[in-house]
Amino acid sequence: MLTQIWVIARKELRLWLQQPANLVVILLVPFLFIWIMGAVFGSSGMPTVAVFAVNLDSGTNAARVLSALQDSPNLEVQLVSDRAEADRRVGQGERMAAVVIPAGFSEAVLTDSGAALELIVDPARNERASIVTGLVNAALAPQLVDAEVARGVNRGIASLLTSQDNLAGMETGVLQEFLTAAFQGVVASQVQSAVEDPLVSLNLQPVGEGPSTESLPSLMEFLVPGYTLMFAFFLVSQLATTIVEERAEGTLRRLLSTPASKAAILAGKFLPYAVIASLQILFVFFVSSLFFDFSLGSSPLALAAVILPIAAVIAALGILIAALARTTGQSSGLTILIVLILAIASGAMSPNIAVPGLQWLTPHFWAIRGFQNIITREMGLSGALQPAAVLTGMALLFFGLAVWRFRFED
Which residue ranges does UniProt annotate as crossing the membrane (predicted)? Predict the structure, then answer.
C-alpha cells in the first residue's frame, strides 16, 4: 500500500512542478504582500490605534490629558464635538474606541475620590479593549503622577494646618504652590528613573500556573505567518480543481482498476500537497527572517509541530472540497470563498478585522497562535502542543469527511 501511495504522490508532485505559476503564487506573492503591508505600517511595531476624543471640560487638567493623548505615538486621535457623536461613530465601526473627558474633570481629579475618563469601545472589537486601555494609560501616565502628587500635597497641607496651632495664621497659597511644584519635580524624576531602570519587575502569575509568558507580537510576527498561511491555502484550490478535472476525464475511474485501494489513492493525492505546503511555509519563514524583522524562534521542533498539521489541514481540505464539488467551476468558486472567509475571520489578513468567536473555528487562528507562542512568547514545544492538537483534529475531520463523501466518477 505504501508503494502505491508513493507512486501516486510522485506523479502528483511532478505534475504540480510542471506549472511555474504555482511557485509564483505560493512563494513570491506572499513576500509582495508582506513587503507592502510592512511598508504601510512600518516594521518597527504594531500600527497605531485610531480613537475619537471628546473633551467636555474646559479646565487645565482636561487640556493636559487631551494633549497627552494627541502626543502619544501609538494613538491616532480625532476630536469630535460630543459624546453622542462619538458613540454613534464608534458603533458604526469608524474607529475602535472613543475617550470621553467628562465635565468637571479638572476639579474632580484633585479630590480624594478622583476623576474618571470614559472609554467607549466598538462592541464588535470588545476583546481588544484592553489594548486601547493600556495605550491610554501609558499616554496619561505623567498626568496621573502630577494629579496624584497635587492631591497628596493638598491633603497633607490640610492635615498639617489643622493639627499645628502655630501655623494657623500662615498664608497657605504660596506654601501649597511651592510644595506641589517641588514634589512633582522630585516624584516625576523618580518615576522616570523607575520606568527606565526598575529595581523590581512584576510578573502576573495566576495560582497553579507557570510564569506569565504573554507578549504582544510585532507587526512582522503578525504579517509573516498570516500572509504565508493565506497564500498556502490557495493550494486547496489547486488540489481540488485537479481532482475534479481527473474525475471528469475518467482518470480517477481508471485508478480504481489498479491494485490501489480508494484510501491509498486519496492518500497519494494528499501527501504531495501536504509536503508542498510544509515546504512553502518553511521557505517563506526562512527568507522573511533574512529580509524582514522576523525571528524563527529557538525551537525548530516546535515550528515543525505546528507546520506539519496545518499543512495536513490544507491538503485534507482540498480533497474535501473536491468531494463536494461536481465541476471545476464549483471547485474554484467554493475554494476561493472558503479561503478568503477563513483568512478574514481568523485575523490572518489583519488582526483588527478578525471575527470574534468564529476565529476559534479556523485553522489559521490556531496556526498563528502556535507560531506566536513559539516566536513571540518563546514558549518552545509547550506552546505548540495545543495548536498542533487542534490542527491535527481538523485535518483528521476533513480527511474523514472527504473519504466518506468522495466519488470517483460522476
Answer: 21-41, 222-244, 270-291, 303-324, 336-355, 384-404
